[in-house]
Amino acid sequence: MKRRVTVTSLVLLVLVVAFSILLLTRQPYSATSVRSPLLGRLAPSVSGASIDGGGSFSLRQERGRVVVLDFWASWCQPCQAEAPNLSTVAWQTRHQGVVVEGVVFNDSLAAARSFDAHYGSLYRSLADPAGSFANAYGVTSPPTTFVISPQGRVGAVLLGPASVAQLNAAIARVRSL
User: Fold this and answer.
1) Exposed site from 26, 39, 166, 172, fewest CB < 10 Å?
2) Prediction pTM value
3) CA 126, CA 109: separation in Å to the nearest integer?
4) What is the pLDDT of residues 99-113, one digit of tens each?
């Protein structure tokens, strides 16, 4: 009986250690480049006032610039991981003809404003209260990011929290189209 308890305890200990190692060495969230029916097509129109009252955005007025359009929500844990990366890219590319714009997905304005203030976003975000922008882009869950060419065409779609490297690679790829 004592031997059985010892063996069971050792097996459980090995399982706990193995699981701990797995958790410590796993890769953080990462975006996946996905195929979308919008790729290569003109991006659906997006325009509206910023959630912080700091101006407005119109995709049409951004022609000639690369636009990174990110659908996010305050309740979305991967969005929380991605927010600093979007701010970094917005800051790094602010003088390079790139605009980063967020779109609040299925969230209250109060929660979105709080998220925006907490993460110190260096990019604007629009409200999408009726979900019309998300519907036009086929977004079903955040974060989903569209990189739009200077000609207004969707050039890349990333599903999940994008890293700075992934965002920069998508921007470079869209610029070369």
Assistant:
1) 26
2) 0.82
3) 10
4) 999 999 999 999 999
